[in-house]
Amino acid sequence: MIKQFPIQQFLDENGKILNKDIRSQITTELVKNFYQHCVRIRTFDRKAISLQRQGRIGTYAPFEGQEAAQVGSALALQQDDWLFPTYRDHGAAMTFGHSLRNILLFWNGRNEGCIPPEGKKIFPPAIPIATQIPHAAGAAYAEKRKGTKNAAIVYFGDGATSEGDFHEGINFASVMKAPVVLFNQNNGYAISVPINKQMSSQTIAQKALAYDIPGVRIDGNDIFVVYFETLKALERARQGQGPTLIEAVTWRYGAHTTADDPSKYRDQTESQQRRHTMDPLLRIEHFMKNEGMYDEHWINEIEEAAQAEIDLAVQEMEEFPVANPADIFDHVFAEPTWGIQKQKEEYLRLLEVNP
Amino acid sequence: MMNTVIQTKTLTLVQAINEAMDTMLKENEQVILLGEDIGKNGGVFRATDGLQEKYGEDRVLDTPLSEAGFVGAAIGMAVNGFRPVVEIQFLGFIYPAYEQIMTHASRLRMRTMGYYTVPMVIRAPYGAGVRAPEIHCDSTEAIFTHMPGIKVVCPSNPYDAKGLLIAAIEDPDPVLFLEPMRSYRSVRDEVPDGKYIVEIGKGNRLIEGEDVTLISWGAMVPVALKAAEQMKVRGIHCDVLDLRTLYPLDHELIAESVQKTGRTVIVHEAHATGGVGNDIVSIINDTSFLFQKAPVERVTGFDTPVPYFGFEDHYLPTPKRVVHAIEKVMKY
């Protein structure tokens, strides 16, 4: 199966283009846009870890190392498409237009953080594994039924492919020809369990064979292949040809979450080595240098801009009004049931008397 | 419109359910049915009989055999503008979808503070007493009444079934709609044509009486009524309540009746421990403690798995067991 599903690269580790067909589509503007988004989400990720360490947000799931997979795929979407992230895909969500303040609010325990900017079809991050895949299949099928050309993308990890909901969702999508792209980020580990203990199959892409849909295996650290293959899969979806399974092979440098210590289950020197050889940002830098696009001044500018934007979001998150206990009760149903209303009144009265 | 004559038809409970879906498919383009064998086959109980022929394969969808998959997909459709009505073939087969209902359908409104909502109905035949195979007879409504964010409805007769199902389809939140399969074809009613609603959250007094409050729902209503008849001959008059909705419970109706009689017997076929009967006892405790003349009696299924049908007559509450409980509260 490794032979049938080789890892496709458009851009190698040294920043050399391997796929000549895409050459004409690669503009300076596109490359700079890729790079700027990668810098932006990496800066956010590092800031969030630091905020967690300082006790300013709760447990946080970092994605550093997976920037090309998230940015490349999210940039392939159109304005009216749907995005179904997991808890590690806020890099994709913010690239697609989610509010940085709200993403920080989510990690700081606030429901307000699950609300996307008005009109942006971004689902709250899935916390259980793989359950978002049927949602994406259903939302995409709904678009098909409405006769739109909108599609959905759903993110999930390597471990998710062992769950029933992965298979039920992909099966539903393939039977209904739902316009959905199933975007897997295979980072080699489901918390601590390596992929060879997760599945007997050598690739995730090959699972597409069973559903008779295209399965594509790509280098998830090569933003070019991620972007163009996701575009292609989305185009197939829009044309009524149904779902595509993309396996983007990548690596998370850090922990599963800030509550996890990866040195317990893997040798972290591998992560250090990968920073020098496989890093998704480094690869774009190599390409920019090879093409004469590299501009240190511009890079400094975008790094500062990202930092400023994130600092502002942190400030907005920290200045956000404190949690209103009434909100717990008011959004369970459109109208609270008598029992919830009673609990609310009694609790709020108690707070008034004894704050 | 005062003079409009409302046309009625004599329908079984399962026919009334079919009529409710027919009415709503006709009225609202967003209504869509999903489930196993609901298309050409019309469902294993024929609840969707003829609907695919009438409304097409796009609106009455045979899904793959995957409860989590199609309940999950229905959540995605509900969020994206549809009103899915999902059929689970038997309540005992809903468990693969438990996670989708517990962590998503019932919680999306809360998680997004109303930005995403799930106006979805999950229909499921439930209960024992029809000599069905194992696992086809569960009555696990309490799993879902315990779950915040979903309403649980359970009609006992054709009129309520149609009106409640229409109300459920129009509800802005998820509703689990439990259908007493034992009563699917054993009860007939005059059911109005067209659209009408039975309000979710409102119970119904079936017989007025002063001595004992008898509370039940679904397939246990006929059992309660039989026991009430037998007691009436002996001069004891039961106030028989059909709750119709199990979440939210009609606490006002319960309190009003219990404060009148001071004695209560609850009848449900689900297991006693953690059953909805316990929530009713809590309501009585909270609202009517000083009116009580006897401890509340519960006549329920036992704390055993629902047995294979060779034993089910021993498992299910019978009029005899209900009469025995009524005697107990009367003698206390």
Basic shape of chain B: globular
Under CATH, the homologous superfamily of the largest domain in chain A reads Thiamin diphosphate (ThDP)-binding fold, Pyr/PP domains
Run of helices and strands of chain B: EHEHEHEHHEHEHEEEEHEEHEHEHH
**Rg result of chain A:** 21 Å
Helix content of chain B: 25-40%
SSE order of chain A in H/E notation?
A: HHEHHEHEHEEEHHEHEHHHHH
Major interchain interface with per-chain residue totals: A-B, 41 and 44 residues
Query: How many domains, in number, for the residues of chain B?
Result: 2
Strand order, sheet with most strands of chain A: 2-1-3-4-8-7
Overall CATH class of the largest domain in chain B: Alpha Beta
Please, how many domains of chain A? 2
Keywords (chain A): Oxidoreductase, Pyruvate, Thiamine pyrophosphate
Subunit structure (chain A): Heterodimer of an alpha and a beta chain.
Organism (chain A): Pseudoneobacillus rhizosphaerae
Enzyme class (chain A): oxidoreductase
Describe the structure.
The complex is a heterodimer of chains A (355) and B (332). Chain A is an alpha/beta fold and 355 residues long. Chain A has two domains: 20-322, Rossmann fold (3-Layer(aba) Sandwich); 324-355. Chain A has helices spanning 28-53, 67-75, 90-95, 100-107, 132-146, 164-176, 195-198, 207-211, 223-238, 269-277, 280-291, 296-319, 326-330, 338-353, and strands spanning 82-84, 121-122, 152-157, 180-186, 189-190, 193-194, 215-219, 244-249. In chain A, α1 (28-53) packs across α12 (296-319) and α5 runs parallel beside α6 (164-176). Chain A is globular, with a radius of gyration of 21 Å. Chain A starts with 27 loop residues before the first helix and ends with a helix. With 332 residues, chain B is of the alpha/beta class. Chain B has two domains: 8-192, 3-Layer(aba) Sandwich (Rossmann fold), CATH 3.40.50; 204-331, 3-Layer(aba) Sandwich (Rossmann fold), CATH 3.40.50. Chain B has helices spanning 13-27, 51-55, 67-79, 98-105, 108-111, 141-145, 158-170, 221-233, 251-261, 276-288, 312-315, 319-331, and strands at 8-12, 31-35, 60-62, 83-87, 121-126, 151-153, 175-180, 188-192, 204-207, 212-216, 238-242, 245-247, 264-271, 297-301. In chain B, strands 3-2-4-5-7-6-12 form a seven-stranded mixed beta sheet, with helices on both faces. In chain B, strands 9-11-10-13-14 form a five-stranded mixed beta sheet, with helices on both faces. The longest helix of chain B has 15 residues, at 13-27. Chain B is globular, with a radius of gyration of 20 Å. The termini of chain B are far apart. The A-B interface holds A 82, 111-112, 114-116, 123-124, 127-128, 131, 133-143, 145-146, 164-165, 167-169, 171-172, 175-176, 327, 331-334, 337-339 and B 32, 58, 63-64, 66, 68-82, 96, 99-100, 103-104, 108-117, 148-149, 151, 172-173, 201, 247-248, 251. Chain A: One of its GO terms (molecular function) is pyruvate dehydrogenase (acetyl-transferring) activity. Chain A: It catalyses: N(6)-[(R)-lipoyl]-L-lysyl-[protein] + pyruvate + H(+) = N(6)-[(R)-S(8)-acetyldihydrolipoyl]-L-lysyl-[protein] + CO2. Chain A: Heterodimer of an alpha and a beta chain.
